[in-house]
Automatic annotation (TrEMBL), chains A, B:
<dbReference type="InterPro" id="IPR007729">
    <property type="entry name" value="DGOK"/>
</dbReference>
<keyword id="KW-0808">Transferase</keyword>
<dbReference type="InterPro" id="IPR042257">
    <property type="entry name" value="DGOK_C"/>
</dbReference>
<dbReference type="GO" id="GO:0008671">
    <property type="term" value="F:2-dehydro-3-deoxygalactonokinase activity"/>
</dbReference>
<protein>
    <submittedName>
        <fullName>2-keto-3-deoxy-galactonokinase</fullName>
        <ecNumber>2.7.1.58</ecNumber>
    </submittedName>
</protein>
<dbReference type="GO" id="GO:0034194">
    <property type="term" value="P:D-galactonate catabolic process"/>
</dbReference>
<dbReference type="Pfam" id="PF05035">
    <property type="entry name" value="DGOK"/>
</dbReference>
<dbReference type="InterPro" id="IPR042258">
    <property type="entry name" value="DGOK_N"/>
</dbReference>
<keyword id="KW-0418">Kinase</keyword>
Length: 303, 303
């Protein structure tokens, strides 16, 4: 018995992780719980149990509203939550109910889709909504580094367009599933190698496959350090993304959403291009976004 | 008892596969054997047994010379065979003996290394030597598509320089270990999608991570066919390589070494740039290369 009695529960359910917060009506987190049971390792019928395993202590006081963003709303998720189209507000109306026991009222936030070029997001729309809730009237470009990095153009409270880059997933697949795995093992980070590779990745992105093999060759021939090898892989990939996203940051107001090392790398990469991107914590914007969805939900109910 | 009594045995031992041929003194294959026990799945002490398992029928007539090219000579292989430096002939002298029972005389061909930019090959040097043996005096550029594609400049019987691209390994890692795996499953090939992606990969290689995610988005939004998705992934990656290798094929005499679909894709890609690259079978050049190494060995012995 923890004594935590939330007004509602906020949930961010990604491919790899599940996080839940016990929330007050005003949007303050009272407690947090998490597990590694991401969408990627669950069958549809396992979602409710996985959630109950971490929020069970907060239940018992009547039917509990639960708002979920992220991959739990994908086709392979708990309940498919569809996509709202851009241009439009980041949080479309129309939460999707997910089947559960009668003591839970589970709703999933829809993703966003763009027709041309084809693109989708699921989870980031809630972060964008949260960023706008924390920064009312903000116009400019948001960059959300991650497994599938997003660049999002905002104007007048709406998402005008966005672009996804598989940069983080490429890093992970190359590091774990190519011959480079022998060169990357260990710890550490070589800032100079990152900066040089970033410049190289921007200048000659077509040479990626060759520069990657050169990392392996150099570690065989001259014992290149794993710290330099890792920084070089990251710099080559992020450099190509920064180059491709040039139209998104050049002369624009840019804000970064993220935490930790990856967001720092993007910040450094943008700073090398003369862009001073403010960094906003991703958990803060996720909670603000789910709180905005909750306000819409209760507002709808009240009318 | 097969009745096959070779003069010597030729072996191509890669990361994934092992192939052996019973050879006459003149370099004709009498029989072939193969297994899937590539270097990647063997401990050092397992190599001899893996080889005996497939060549056992050919032994019994005295001490048998065995010449091996490929990854069996890597640091994690049967015996590390070192690297000869370029510029220089593709087959350097100095075969590395591998420990074995007294009825075998096992020697491994060294790889080739380049200092600037750092690069290595192991196995392809034998194919290059074989190509030169079959085409004496040939000057130009060889392209060897594969897991780690190689572009090799030949002049006056020597390797002047070379460049490796991790293109094949990137394709495999992305197809198996990213979200694209959901979009690629199945059979078939879309030639038009390949050509379009090749052009796109050459023109905007920096957009790779974005174009990859668009494949996933398009299969979610418009049910893009797996045949088109696979062709697009291949075209984007090969397009970037062809663009980066521009200095290797533009205005040059180019020959391709390979068989099957992958070599066909490279041939089509080069043809789109106006380069008519002749295609030579990779097994033929491997055997010709090992025969050249065998001639050097017996020649050395004779002096």
């Amino acid at each position: 018995m923890t004594g935590v009695r939330p007004d509602w529960i906020a949930v961010d359910w990604g491919t790899s992780n599940l996080r839940a917060w016990a929330m007050t009506e005003a949007g303050e987190p009272l407690a947090e719980a998490r597990s590694d049971r991401g969408m990627g390792r669950l069958r549809r019928e396992d979602f409710e149990g996985a959630l109950r395993d971490i929020i069970g202590d907060w239940l018992g006081g009547g039917r509990m509203p639960v708002l979920i963003c992220g991959m739990a709303g994908a086709r392979q998720g708990w309940a498919e939550a569809g996509y709202a189209r851009v241009p439009g507000p980041p949080l479309a109306k129309g939460l999707t109910p997910a089947p559960s026991g009668p003591d839970l009222d589970v709703r999933i936030v829809p993703g966003l889709a763009q027709d041309d070029p084809p693109d989708v997001m699921r989870g980031e729309e809630t972060q964008v909504a949260g960023f706008l809730a924390l920064n009312p009237g903000w116009d400019g470009v948001l960059c959300l580094p991650g497994t599938h990095s997003k660049w999002v153009r905002l104007s007048a409270g709406e998402v005008v367009g966005f672009r996804s880059f598989m940069t983080g997933e490429l890093y992970a697949a190359i590091a774990a599933h190519t011959v480079l795995r022998h060169s990357l093992a260990g710890e550490g980070w070589d800032e100079g190698a990152f900066a040089a590779a970033l410049t190289e990745g921007m200048a000659r992105p077509e040479a990626l496959a060759s520069r990657l093999f050169a990392i392996r060759a150099e570690s065989l021939l001259t014992a290149l350090s794993p710290a330099a090898a890792r920084a070089r892989l990251s710099g080559l990939l992020i450099g190509a993304e920064i180059q491709a996203a040039r139209g998104w940051w050049l002369g624009e107001r840019v804000a970064l959403i993220g935490t930790g090392r990856l967001a720092g790398h993007y910040r450094a990469a943008l700073a090398m291009q003369g862009v001073d991107a403010a960094l906003t914590d991703d958990t803060a914007v996720t909670l603000a976004g789910l709180q905005a969805a909750r306000r819409e939900q209760t507002g709808e109910r009240g009318t």
